[in-house]
TrEMBL record:
Keywords, sorted A to Z: Cytoplasm, Metal-binding, NAD, Oxidoreductase, Zinc
Enzyme Commission number(s) from the entry: 1.1.1.1
Alcohol dehydrogenase-like C-terminal domain mapped to chain residues: 206-334
GO cellular component, one term: cytoplasm
Family annotation (Gene3D superfamilies): Medium-chain alcohol dehydrogenases, catalytic domain, NAD(P)-binding Rossmann-like Domain
Presence of keyword Cytoplasm: yes
Species assigned in the record: Theobroma cacao
Protein name: alcohol dehydrogenase
GO molecular function: alcohol dehydrogenase (NAD+) activity; zinc ion binding
C-alpha cells in the first residue's frame, strides 16, 4: 500500500544534546508539503560539519535534532507543486539549494549562493510553514541544513534535491553530495591550476583529498600536503600527493617552509581545515604575481583573518569557494554522469574507508574524532 500522503514511522538517529551519543529512535515523518520531497535514505556518511554542530562549539544549540547531509536515496513521494521529481527517482539531497528564480540563481557571476535555499545551519524547520516534519510522540524534532539524512526517511525542499542517473551505485556516489564536490570543485573550478603548476593542499580529510584529486586531474607537477596528523600521509599518496609537510616539525611558520621548498611559493593553494591560521598560511605561501589561494574550510564564528595588505598588493589572489562552485540541482547530475563515464578520474572507493550499519552510527563519530579514515558509510537499511 502506498505511503504517499501518510505519516511514516521509521528509525532515526536523534541528537538529544550537545556531544552526547546519538540515540536510534522511532520517529514520525510527516508527508511533504508544497515544494517538498520525501526521500527514503539508503546511505549516508558523516561530515565534519555534522560533528561541529553536534558538539555545538561556538554555535547556538538546537536540540533535539536529526543531523546528516551527505547521503543518497530514492524519492518516496512529492508535495504540491513538485514537477521535476517523482517517486522512484534516485537522488542526492544537498545541504544548499537552487531555487532557479533569485538573483543569485539567475546570475552568470555566481553558481550556488541561492537567496532562498543557501545553507542555514541554525534553521531547524521547513520553509513552507515554519514547522518540522519529524516528531516523536507529538514532540517536534528539528531539522539540520534542510536535509537531516540520519533518518530512514526525510523531507527536503525540492530545490535541494539532485536527480541522478538511476544506474549510479548509491553507496559509491553518496559522498558526492557534499565532500567530493566541495573539494574537487574548489580546485578545478576556482583555483584552476594549469598543467605543470604546484599546488598546496591544507588538510587531508575527505575534502582536502578531493581537492588533491582535482589538482592531479589538472596536471599539477607537485602537490604538497599540509596536515598535523602524520598518520594521513601514507594514505594520501593514493590521491596524487607528492610531498608532505607537518607544521609541528618546524620552528617557523609553515608558509615560510613552503616558500623555501618551492623557490618563492606555490602557484595555487586550497585550504580545507577551517583553521584561521591554516587559512593565513595557505594565502601567504602562494607565489607573488600570480599565486591564487582558495579558502574552503568553515572557521569558528568569531574567528578573523589577518594578513598584511602587501600580500595582496603584490598580486596574490585570495578567493573563497562554496560547494566547489557547483549549482546543486543543475550541475550535480552531470557530475555523477561524468563519474559513471570515468571522465572525472576519481575513484570513489578510496574515500569510503569504513562502513557500519545504522545501529552503529556512533562509531562513525568515533572514527572522525580520532582522525581515522575519511568517510564512514552508514547503511540505513541495515
Amino acid at each position: 500500500m502506498s505511503t504517499a500522503g501518510q505519516v511514516i514511522r521509521c528509525k532515526a538517529a536523534v541528537a538529544w544534546e550537545a556531544g552526547k551519543p546519538l540515540s536510534i529512535e522511532e520517529v514520525e515523518v510527516a508527508p511533504p508539503q508544497k515544494q517538498e520531497v520525501r526521500i527514503k535514505i539508503l546511505f549516508t556518511s558523516l561530515c565534519h560539519t555534522d560533528v561541529y554542530y553536534w558538539e555545538c562549539k561556538g554555535y547556538t544549540p538546537l536540540f533535539p535534532r536529526i543531523l546528516g547531509h551527505e547521503a543518497s536515496g530514492i524519492v518516496e513521494s512529492v508535495g504540491e507543486g513538485v514537477t521535476d521529481l517523482q517517486p522512484g527517482d534516485h537522488v542526492l539531497p544537498i545541504f544548499t539549494g537552487e531555487c532557479k528564480k533569485c538573483r543569485h540563481c539567475l546570475s552568470e557571476e555566481t553558481n550556488n549562493m541561492c537567496d532562498l535555499l543557501r545553507i542555514n545551519c541554525d534553521r531547524g524547520v521547513m520553509l513552507a510553514d515554519g514547522k518540522t516534519r519529524f516528531s516523536i510522540n507529538g514532540k517536534p524534532i528539528y531539522h539540520f541544513v534542510g536535509t537531516s539524512t540520519f533518518s530512514q526517511y526525510t523531507v527536503v525542499h525540492e530545490g535541494q534535491v539532485a536527480k541522478i542517473n538511476p544506474t549510479a551505485p548509491l553507496d559509491k556516489v553518496c559522498p558526492i553530495s557534499c565532500g567530493i564536490c566541495t573539494g574537487f570543485g574548489a580546485t578545478v573550478n576556482v583555483a584552476k591550476p594549469r598543467k605543470g603548476q604546484t599546488v598546496a593542499i591544507f588538510g587531508l580529510g575527505a575534502v582536502g583529498l578531493a581537492a588533491a584529486e582535482g589538482a592531479r586531474v589538472c596536471g599539477a607537477s607537485r602537490i604538497i600536503a599540509v596536515d598535523l596528523n602524520p598518520r594521513r600521509f601514507e594514505e594520501a599518496k593514493k590521491f596524487g600527493i607528492t610531498e608532505f609537510v607537518n607544521p609541528k616539525d618546524y620552528n617557523k611558520p609553515v608558509q615560510e617552509v613552503i616558500v623555501e621548498m618551492t623557490g618563492g611559493g606555490v602557484d595555487r593553494s586550497v585550504e580545507c581545515t577551517g583553521s584561521v591560521q591554516a587559512m593565513i598560511s595557505a594565502f601567504e605561501c602562494v607565489h607573488d604575481g600570480w599565486g591564487v589561494c582558495v579558502l574552503v574550510g568553515v572557521p569558528k564564528i568569531d574567528d578573523a583573518f589577518k594578513t598584511h595588505p602587501l600580500n595582496l598588493l603584490s598580486e596574490r589572489t585570495l578567493k573563497g569557494a562554496f560547494y566547489g562552485n557547483y549549482k546543486p540541482v543543475s550541475d550535480i547530475p552531470n557530475f555523477v554522469n561524468k563519474y559513471m563515464n570515468k571522465e572525472l578520474g576519481i575513484d570513489m572507493d578510496k574515500f569510503i574507508t569504513h562502513s557500519v550499519p545504522f545501529a552503529d552510527i556512533n562509531k562513525a563519530f568515533d572514527y572522525m574524532l580520532q582522525g581515522i579514515g575519511l568517510r564512514c558509510l552508514i547503511h540505513l537499511d541495515a
